[in-house]
Amino acid sequence: MMKRLDDFRLRMGRDELVPIMIGGMGVDISSADLALEAARLGGVGHISDAMIKTVTDRRYQTKYVKAKQAQYKHNMTSSDKSEVKFNLGDLAEATRLHVQHTMERKRGNGMVFINCMEKLTMNAPKDTLKIRMASALDAGIDGITLAAGLHLGSFALIEDHPRFRDAKLGIIVSSLRALQLFLKKNSRLNRLPDYVVVEGPLAGGHLGFGMDWAQYDLATIVADIRAWLVAEQLDIPLIPAGGIFTGSDAVRFLENGGAAVQVATRFTVTRECGLPDDVKQEYFKADEDDIEVNEISPTGYPMRMIKASPGIGDGIRPNCEAYGYLLDANGKCAYVDAYYRELAAHPGEKRISVKDKTCLCTHMRNFAIWTCGQTAGRLKATTVRAADGSYQLLSAEHVFNDYLLSTDDQIRLPEPETALA
Ligand SMILES: Cc1cc2nc3c(=O)[nH]c(=O)nc-3n(C[C@H](O)[C@H](O)[C@H](O)COP(=O)(O)O)c2cc1C
Fold first, then answer.
1. Taking the domains of the chain in order of start, what are their residue ranges?
2. Is the C-beta atom of 240 inside 6 A of ligand 1?
3. Does the keyword Oxidoreductase apply (predicted)?
4. Hey, whose CA ends up nearest to atom 20 of ligand 1?
């Protein structure tokens, strides 16, 4: 008989968890409410620290963004953003607020981790990352997943933190090579990652592949990494991610050595997810043809999104004085360059368009870049429609349990809330 995902458990040290991790989804798409449901149900949820000050302003009535914007107001029309820095005390406080408020509400036997994207270089990569990680640990987060743009020395930034060895620390990689480099660089610390998320080419958000992503395959990458870990006698739980759409997809990975799965796209259309409801409808409506991988993210990594995302091609003035999360160590962002190039090429024009890069901070903050996994084209098959044609939102619990209990690639539909169309 075919197994269900619920027949497996994720073991991390002495902890035993339901083998479902809901992945971090930046700028509060994987909200505290969503992460807390995963934890209540015995799995692992993620909050994200992407644009943390914007998130606390919106959730907890702080005024960090206004304060930063006021401080650097004189620089708003300048193409040189090098002086625009984050106040590290505010950054620590914002992180603490977000994590503390989340952890206070935690119920159940699962865990809540925070997703830290290292490509948020914030015009001072090491200082800001160190503060972000240390503050999250201070505030009681169960674990940290280092993602996107993995800096090889990042564990060392918190090696003196009292929780360095008790908190769960994990990394996301898309190749054996990336994992080997990370482990080599960290060998001095005598502290292995507690888990490794292996993210394949069908995932949402940024991809750890080039534009040749379609030539790669998650199962093959997981098998390569697993074979190497066995040969090296390293016992680190592997957590495949990207395109795992049904409980049976997940079971196939667990039968081949995965310790759990990380999933995200199916949770974008839950009530607990932080996207606005009208955007959730866009995710439901999208067909596979409506999704593309492009290179407009200033990070330099390809990113998958719905083609109709309003942020694509938009030419808004850079908002680094308010945000500035993507400024690199020299205060540069590829969108700032692209914007001022277009401005110079079209003098006097009121609204310019910038096609090759996007102001990712502004547009992720405003939910105007609709990033998603490749399987978003199948979301409409996971729910029922109301009489007005709209798709019924799901509860996170429903989706979580569908992964856990389904067999034969089936997807259980929710009970209709209103009459069916
Ligand atoms: C809307 C959305 C936003 C995402 N944002 C992030 C992010 O901020 N950081 C990150 O490491 N991964 C991000 N991801 C990737 C997910 O955490 C996850 O690994 C991946 O999407 C799993 O594949 P699936 O969506 O096919 O289930 C995002 C995914 C989605 C769908």
1. 5-405
2. no
3. yes
4. 203
